[in-house]
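Hi L., both proteins are below.
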Amino acid sequence: MTTVTIYTTQFCGFCAAAKRLLKAKEVEFDEIDVGRDSALRQEMMHKSGRHTVPQIWIGETHIGGCDELYELDRAGKLDSMLVP
């Protein structure tokens, strides 16, 4: 399965929803909590150009946040992105 990376914070409802969808699809993901680490938040902002969480990558592709993740799933595109 393709590597999934998700930048999160501890009390983020959108982060929880994104992780819930990934877990429902039995997708393992690397979670990076930026809530207490300004260097990691800066890394996320530099890579994504955004300051909100979650920020999600599937492989090398930045797909955006929770809304974009769910839109990919509704459009039937998410599953194919998850397989190498």
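That was the first. Here is the second:
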Amino acid sequence: MRPSGRARDALRPISIETGATKHAEGSCLIRMGDTHVLCTASVEGRTPPWMRNSGLGWVTAEYGMLPRATHTRNRREASAGKITGRTQEIQRLIGRSLRAGTDRVAMGERQITVDCDVLQADGGTRCASITGGWVALWLAAQKLVDAGELKENPISEHVAAVSCGVYAGQTVLDLDYAEDSEAGTDANVVMTGSGGMVEVQGSAEGATFSRDELNALLDLASAGIAQLVAAQKEAISR
């Protein structure tokens, strides 16, 4: 029995509320159970210096967790004067994932920065950031289309992510913190809406896991991501 009482292949309740902030070109508040992430996308009319005159656009991401997103207060990284290695790794993952669904030629020489701020954490924050970040990115790009600055939306593929793992001897989907902290194996899977693999992060905590368990985890993730993509489609259609 999972702590939440969910079936092994069940996602936590998900909601994606668009237009969550006033000023960002694209924004949403994504809730996956008790993990809540505010995602905003900001458009700049130029690319980083190292990309100038390349004819390509750029999508990048920043990630942060509010001090009381967790059970105890965490010091703001700005106060500490440096970004932790974990934050850097998550930011790069989000950026890579979102670029996988972007036609950077059609985007033109501009940059879109997706900011993912964790308001409340209960496991799976990086996966929620990717799934919600895609919605904010698509909305920002669509605003450029509506303004006549682009002919078509360059966000050509849905991208979503979900966690999975081996908990209490069984493969399960979408780990919350209670499961993540005790899981023998945990993984994060990023996929496109058409089923292409973008990234798979998986590790054993103690005992190893088998090829059959890995295949079972990927099957769970694929089915979960299909549901997340459906939620993305519903969000951007409103």
